[in-house]
Write a structure and sequence with these properties.
Protein name: Crustacean calcium-binding protein 23
Bound molecules: calcium ion
Structural class: mainly alpha
CATH superfamily: EF-hand
GO molecular function: calcium ion binding
Number of domains: 1
Keywords: Calcium, Metal-binding, Repeat
InterPro entries: Ca-bind (IPR051581), EF-hand-dom_pair (IPR011992), EF_Hand_1_Ca_BS (IPR018247), EF_hand_dom (IPR002048)
Number of strands: 2
Shape: elongated
Radius of gyration: 18 Å
Helix content: 55-70%
Distance between the termini: 36 Å
Pfam families: EF-hand_7
Length: about 120
């Protein structure tokens, strides 16, 4: 963590390690995706928001009768909730945190933005 090699960790270096590593460009595209997902515009992505846009009826487990479409979509939302409160409602913070995790493994801003655009058809 001692990036400037002074032999001690200063406060800024420490903060940099804690802060989600997302540039403005990345944050902007993540928020754009969130806004698209949040159909109702209440600042949370819930089952109701995604139901109209994501058809889970062809999911293998729905076809086999193991899961309902709602189950599949709830699980899909749960991915973005991470280890925080999994209550079927994805908050902006949860969504940003999920993508800051993804973001860490991607060096180029452009690549990250492009990936988001394709994933969410922005
Ligand atoms: Ca909503
Ligand atoms: Ca939640």
């Amino acid at each position: 963590m001692d990036e400037d090699g002074t032999g001690s960790i200063n406060y800024d270096e420490f903060l940099d390690k804690l802060r989600p590593e997302m540039t403005e460009d990345r944050t902007a595209v993540v928020l754009e995706a969130f806004a698209k997902l949040d159909e109702s515009g209440d600042g949370m992505v819930t089952l109701e928001d995604v139901k109209g846009n994501y058809d889970a009826s062809n999911h293998p487990k729905v076809v086999s009768g193991e899961m309902s479409e709602d189950d599949v979509l709830t699980r899909f939302l749960g991915r973005f909730e991470g280890n925080t409160k999994q209550d079927g409602e994805v908050t902006k913070e949860e969504f940003l945190e999920y993508y800051s995790g993804v973001s860490k493994s991607i060096d180029e801003d452009e690549y990250f933005v492009e990936m988001m655009k394709q994933a969410w058809k922005l």
